[in-house]
């Protein structure tokens, strides 16, 4: 069981970010679980919660987006790292590191990085050892 319950950060436009994350995270089995309308939030912005049955990633607008934020998702197959990268870029993200082994971490650290519409660095990593030809 993870000690992480959820991550939340501010974005410029909750609708733009909703569209990005719905598409970029679909290959990982992550979907939008809930949307909280402005009338039900403290700051009058929209909140979208994403996850696999439970909203563990939240984005909201009506606040100042923070640069330098980083989120890493873990998967068990390198093909999911590749699928994330391609979908995230197709959804409007900016490539920030193509899928590949990051041997400066270790020989099984296979990851890809994409900047979301607000510049948040999103990583998907597979730490599972694979055959050399996969």
Automatic annotation (TrEMBL):
Protein name per Swiss-Prot or TrEMBL: Catechol 2,3-dioxygenase-like lactoylglutathione lyase family enzyme
The entry's keywords: Dioxygenase, Lyase, Oxidoreductase
Annotated CDD domains: VOC_like
Residue ranges annotated for the VOC domain, each copy included: 3-127
GO molecular function: dioxygenase activity; lyase activity
InterPro entries recorded: Glyas_Bleomycin-R_OHBP_Dase, Glyas_Fos-R_dOase_dom, VOC_core
Pfam families in the cross-refs: Glyoxalase
Organism of origin: Pseudomonas duriflava
């Amino acid at each position: 069981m993870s000690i992480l319950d959820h991550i939340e950060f501010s974005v410029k436009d909750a609708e733009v970010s909703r569209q990005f994350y719905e598409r970029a995270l679909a290959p990982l089995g992550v979907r939008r679980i809930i949307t909280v309308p402005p009338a039900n939030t403290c700051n009058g912005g929209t909140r979208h919660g994403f996850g696999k049955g439970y909203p563990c990633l939240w984005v909201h607008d009506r606040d100042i987006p923070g640069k330098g934020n980083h989120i890493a998702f873990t998967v068990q197959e390198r093909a999911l790292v590749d699928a994330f990268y391609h979908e995230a870029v197709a959804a409007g993200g900016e490539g920030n590191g193509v899928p590949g082994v990051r041997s400066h971490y270790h020989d099984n650290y296979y990851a890809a990085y994409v900047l979301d519409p607000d510049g948040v660095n999103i990583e998907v990593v597979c730490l599972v050892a694979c055959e050399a030809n996969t």
